[in-house]
Please model this.
Amino acid sequence: MTYPTTAPGLPDILAPGLQVVFCGLNPGVDAAAAGHHFLGRGNRFWPVLHLAGFTPHLVAPQDDASVLGFGLGLTAAVGRPTSRADQVGADEFAQAAAGLRHKLAWAQPQWIAFLGKAAYAAMTGKRQLAWGEQPERFGGARVWILPNPSGLNRGYSKERLVDAYAELKRALG
Model:
């Protein structure tokens, strides 16, 4: 059973009882058009997810729904597609918070991993955030903040992303 969504564009990949739901900022235009998460050529999500130990093999974006079999889910903080995540404002993230909390209450994952600080900061009103585990819960799930895997995030090499994501994997036990 997956989350019942009627929103156009990129569908959530959620089911009850997942270990981790990875929450992107918002879908890219191409990803939303194709209906698959992290589709962009420069996006490093899929290789990083595999190299960090979350999947036994490299998952193709077109097979994104297969992550459910690994106890993982995918969603976006804001559903509106844009060509760049910086085209989504803090007010839009804040307005999306209730909907995201509702999804998480339905799915009841152990963790939500926000991919970048922007959405979580806007949704919670927190200004000072560290990478990694957060002290509070969001929608009932424990919170971890990871660097965004977008190719536009030049502050993190692929190797540093793998290290950051592997830290969450180790925390799962």
User: Anything to note?
Assistant: The longest strand covers residues 132-138. The helical segments are 29-34, 45-51, 90-107, 118-124, 158-171. Strands lie at 20-24, 72-76, 111-115, 132-138, 141-146.
